[in-house]
Specification:
The protein is an alpha/beta fold and 253 residues long. It has one domain: Rossmann fold (3-Layer(aba) Sandwich), CATH 3.40.50. Helix content is 43%, strand content 20%. The chain has 10 helices and 8 strands. Strands 3-4-2-5-1-6-7-8 form an 8-stranded mixed beta sheet, sandwiched between helices. α1 crosses α10 and α7 packs parallel to α8. The longest helix is centred in the middle third of the chain and has 16 residues. It starts with a strand and ends with a helix.
Amino acid sequence: MGYLIAIAGKGGTGKTTLAALLVRLIRENKIGSVLAVDADPNSNLAEALGVKPRQTIGAILDKIARDPSKIPAGMPKERFIEYEVQTAVEEAEGFDILTMGRPEGPGCYCYVNNVLRNIMAKLIGDYDYIVIDNEAGLEHLSRRTTRSADALLVISDATPVGLKAAKRMMALVKELEIKTKKNLLIINRATLKDKYHAGKNREKVIGASIDFLGYIPYDSRINRASINGNSIMQLKNNAPSLAALGKLKDKIL
């Protein structure tokens, strides 16, 4: 059974970047096989990892919805979709990736989430680690895209608004009875000033609902990579963000 890490956070906190950094660390430390799952309809994880997905779950479901005759006679629809989704798993250098994508048809999201859950239940045994980059905000939790995780990694910025959003996520996890073994908070893009203010606000806002793991510093190299269209895999090993997450990885894994 693979070790599942679900990454969540409000928009703009850099959760996709940290998901990509974590996939890189697992690959480079050679601690096991890893599947990266982009469960965010905006689908930025593959790009961050330097991969261009040939197929997405959303596109597969749209294709079948437009032309049901593509389903072979005698084969149940769910089984055909499962086969198609498994072929959408991209093999990259040292990791695999599955991209959810954005379905265009009306009313698709619940069905996409159900498909993703069913596929994940089958794939989870094929990898040592599964890193899921979830949709920004609380939507993925309320729709129960993630029903359980060995580690729930909540990404926030240092602001009271960001910390309150993290607290609401943890309240929803409890309300929906989502099973998590570790609930961890990372404050991302932190400056020295941010660390001072976050240290004062964190306990007051978050309380005991989640374990504070640490800070990832603001890293200009991440911004330059994004502007230049480079992937996280092209960052040098001494990049501050990569080094900081490397010090925290043993507590995540």
